[in-house]
Amino acid sequence: MTHRLLNIALAIAVIAAWMSLAGLFDRELMEGDMRHMHDAQVQKRRNNAAMQICGNAHATWADETTLVCRRHTGKGKSAITTGVTL
User: Fold this and answer.
1) Residue-wise over 23-49: b if at least 16 C-beta within 10 A, else e?
2) What angle do CA 53, 83, 52 make, to 5 degrees?
3) Other CB atoms within 10 A of residue 59 CB
4) What is the 8-class DSSP label of residue 72?
5) What span, in angstroms and rounded, lies between the C-alpha atoms of 51 and 81?
6) What are the E-state strand segments in the chain?
7) How far apart, in whole angstroms, are the C-alpha atoms of residue 38 and residue 64?
8) Could you report the per-residue pLDDT of 40-83, keeping only the tens digit for each?
9) What whole-number distance in Å separates Cα of residue 47 and Cα of residue 41?
């Protein structure tokens, strides 16, 4: 009888440990998903800002705050917009 109770207690302990580890892995995955979602939102804001500023011209980000707009015709100088904050 005590052998059976010991097996049941051991099985419950193993299941509880497994569930707590699974919770830790889920939290890490969720934090990674949140980081990716935030990065995608930032990229979307950058693309929208570039479209609003440059219009039909080709937009390229030189760094975090410098946007370079180039016309598709190849004629004329590039317009450089600096100090863009999103």
Assistant:
1) eeeeeeeeeeeeeeeeeeeeeeebeeb
2) 10
3) 19
4) T
5) 13
6) 58-61, 66-70, 79-82
7) 16
8) 888 888 888 888 888 877 888 888 778 888 776 656 666 666 66
9) 10
Assess contact for 86 and 42: CB atoms under 8 A: yes
Task: Please give the model's pTM, rounded to 2 decimal places.
Answer: 0.50
Return the residue matching tokens 């990065």: 39
Token code pair at residue 70: 């180039």
Sheet (strand 58-61) strand order:
58-61, 66-70, 79-82
Number of neighbours of residue 16 by Cβ within 10 angstroms: 10
Q: What is the DSSP letter of 83?
A: -
Opening angle at CA 63, ends 61 and 69, nearest 5: 30
Which CA distances in Å does 41 have to 3, 35, 36, 38? 57, 10, 9, 5
